[in-house]
Amino acid sequence: ATLDNPWLPSSLYNGMIVPVAPYGIRGAIWYQGESNADRAVQYRTLFPAMIEDWRRIFRNPRMPFYFVQLANFMDPQNGPEESAWAELREAQEMTLRLPHTGMALAIDAGEAKDIHPIRKDTVAERLARLALARTYRQRVADSGPLFSGMEVEGNRVRLSLKHASGLRTRDGEAPSSFQVAGPDQKWHMARTKLDGDAIVVWHPDVKSPVAVRHGWANNPHVNVVNAEGLPLAPFRTDRWPEVTRAKT
Q1: Which residues make Cβ contacts (< 8 Å) with residue 78, sequence separation at least 6?
Q2: How far apart are CA 169 and CA 176, in angstroms?
Q3: Beta carbons of 169 and 194 less than 8 angstroms apart
Q4: According to a count of CB atoms within 10 Å of the terminal CB, is the N or C end of the chain lower?
């Protein structure tokens, strides 16, 4: 590879970041991760490390860093599936543990056949919400519903959410792209219903549910939104072995 090859380690960093640092910038927005999807567990370390290094080189340890979670892509989900892309999205969400970060969702804005989503305006608006609310302190809703807890009620699971005011489905149908599993770790596409600001999920073949996933696929059909029309983020309650762990 030539020294200016963008795939060469540190080539883009030394060619495009170092020359402009430490110029004063208000913050950064970021959309990347597709090339790391087969190494999602590794990304849990790499991505936060990159953010912290940018803050170091720009001499701003509190520099806002807002990023886009990977959009839906590839064949639409038609049943339970393991997904390296879902694991990468999870690694991105884990990065929110760093202060002064924010994540814009694109799980409902992607294209099955185009890795570069066409709906740039949707992604831009959600990034703008983060900047307006968190950096410029305007009263703007900046998050869709987020999973906050689960409670098993017999053979059903009640999912608690935050940022869920006005919870509804975009298409008026039951909440979609939920999976439920029992102790056997076998996933079933769940039946669902809204219950105020919570969601109840179940499946007749899962008598003792222990785990739930939402939007856990390369290209899930998600339809749950809050009053602002912002989508429910993908999540899983289990920590069963990741499909990408062996590739880190």
Answers
A1: none
A2: 9
A3: yes
A4: N
pLDDT for 9: 82
3-class DSSP state of 139: coil
In terms of C-beta density within 10 A (0-12 exposed, 13-18 middle, 19 or more buried), how is residue 224 classed? Answer: buried
Sole residue written with tokens 């030539």: 2
The pLDDT-based confidence of 246 (bands split at 50, 70, 90) is very low
pLDDT at 245: 59
Q: Is the pLDDT of residue 43 over 70?
A: yes
pLDDT surpasses 60 at 144: yes
CA distance 222 to 199: 13
Of residues 100, 109, 180, 194, the one with CA closest to residue 145: 194
Which residues contact residue 202 at a Cβ distance below 8 angstroms, ignoring those fewer than 6 apart? 155, 156, 157, 180, 190, 191, 192, 209
CB atoms within 10 A of CB 229: 12
Specify the pTM: 0.94
User: Per residue, what are the HEC states of 75-97?
Assistant: CCCCCCCCCHHHHHHHHHHHHHH
Is there a contact between 216 and 198 (Cβ–Cβ < 8 Å)?
no
- Which residues lie across from 101 on neighbouring strands? 65
Alpha carbon distance 32, 67 (integer Å)? 8
Token pair in block for residue 21: 């640092």
Count the neighbouring beta carbons within 10 Å of the beta carbon of residue 122.
Answer: 18
Best CA proximity match to 70, nearest among 110, 124, 127:
110
